[in-house]
Amino acid sequence: MTYEGLIERISPTLKRITHRLNGRFSFFNEEDLYQEALMHLWVSFKEGRLDDKTDSYILQGCYFHLKNFLRKTEEKVNLVSLDAKLDEEGMRFEENLCLENPESCFNRLEAKFLIDHLQNNGLTQREKEVLSLILEGLTVREIGKRLGISHVRVVKIKANIVSKSKKA
Known about the structure:
Blueprint lengths: L2 H20 L7 H17 L8 H22 L16 H8 L1 H21 L2 H11 L4 H8 L3 H17 L1
Helix pairs in contact: 1-2, 1-3, 2-3, 4-5, 6-8, 7-8
């Protein structure tokens, strides 16, 4: 079995799978998902893991790989639309929304001030490190890995941050 022959056989079904998965996730198009599946297949083919497998088994593996890929990537993706609508003054929709709903902007501003106050006054160095990683969007386990501490310790530090923020 050659890689090209395999792709030729399963390509129509693989494209249907990527089309179906793309319906739920707007940050990738079908071609992105198709290319990711092809890379997964290439690695598996080179390692010899596809030699005795049926097309159905291979397609099922691609489906699970793509779902796992989307699940992992969705948490880390930060979408910025290049099609964001601008009004006559050049303000984006979000900025106009702040003018129309100042309470939500005030809450965001208040949160930023609280974070600045905590980082500059009330937190230990370790708590500052954990807070900055939380703000980056890392999970508790990722923070623990990055700082070289257990995830349980990260949870305790997070609780300390929360209690200090209530006092501030």
